[in-house]
Design brief:
The complex is a heterodimer of chains A (112) and B (116).
Chain A (H helix, E strand, L loop, with lengths): L3 E3 L2 E5 L4 E6 L7 E6 L6 E6 L5 E4 L2 E6 L4 E6 L8 E8 L8 E3 L3 E6 L1
Chain B lengths: L4 E3 L2 E4 L5 E6 L6 E7 L6 E7 L14 E5 L5 E5 L8 E8 L10 E2 L3 E5 L1
Parallel strand pairs in B: 2-10
Antiparallel strand pairs in B: 1-3, 3-7, 4-5, 4-8, 6-7, 8-9, 8-10
The chains are: A mainly beta (112), B mainly beta (116).
């Protein structure tokens, strides 16, 4: 079962902040975040591995709450280049032969 | 190669015809995924190959869809008797190891399939 993302879409003015949430009904062992620009392939942003782990990439950071089975992606002082669709991905288990299942996506539009 | 390569980049086919999509993963990557992305939609899992293990075919939508992979190299996704609902971008991704929990997936540019 795929993880659920919220919101489905958000429009921001340049410089504003955004939070994208990803939750699962199943236990999460790690969470991947990817960004896909229009007409392009998804590109990796980061992986969070441990419960409570936080990571940052430029002004994009994320947290992972293993107990709550959810992760959040934070975009601070958004730039025009942040526009795109953000996907979270979760392995189905922490053992071998796991597959990567992606959430429903959040379309982020940054306007000047 | 430098990245995941997919061919063709675009394919227009008539309803009822068979199509074959190809994916060349990054050399040495044992894991390979196929996803389908309909216009404006998310990434729908189709099939997953990991080394010599039996593939996870749980995402294939019907028996018209099949995929093969030779060892840890090229994979082909075949759609038989194509329907208009099959129109989508088909994305391939590869990953270095079977434990995708701590390795990223690298995506190809996709094949845009249009069934007319």
């Amino acid at each position: 079962q795929q993880p659920v993302q919220s919101p489905q879409a958000v429009i921001l003015r340049e410089g504003e902040d955004a939070v994208i949430n990803c939750s699962s009904s199943k236990a999460l062992y790690s969470v991947h975040w990817y960004r896909q620009k229009h007409g392009e392939a998804p590109v990796f942003l980061m992986i969070l591995l441990k419960g409570g782990e936080q990571k940052g990439h430029d002004k994009i950071s994320a947290s992972f709450n293993e107990k709550k089975q959810q992760s959040s992606l934070y975009l601070t002082a958004s730039q025009l280049s942040y526009s795109g669709t953000y996907f979270c991905g979760t392995p189905t288990s922490n053992f071998g032969n796991e597959k990567l299942t992606f959430g429903t996506g959040t379309r982020l539009t940054i306007i000047p | 190669g430098a990245g995941v390569s997919q061919s063709p980049s675009n394919k227009v086919t008539e309803k009822g015809k068979d199509v074959e999509l190809r994916c060349d993963p990054i050399s040495g990557h044992t894991a390979l995924y196929w996803y389908r992305q309909r216009l404006g939609q998310g990434l729908e899992f189709l099939i997953y190959f990991q080394g010599n293990s039996a593939p996870d075919k749980s995402g294939l939508p019907s028996d018209r869809f099949s995929a093969e992979r030779t060892g840890e190299s090229v994979s082909t996704l075949t759609i038989q008797r194509t329907q208009q609902e099959d129109s989508a971008v088909y994305l391939c991704a590869s990953s270095p190891t079977m434990a995708s929990s701590n390795t990223e997936a690298f995506f190809g540019q996709g094949t845009r399939l249009t069934v007319v």
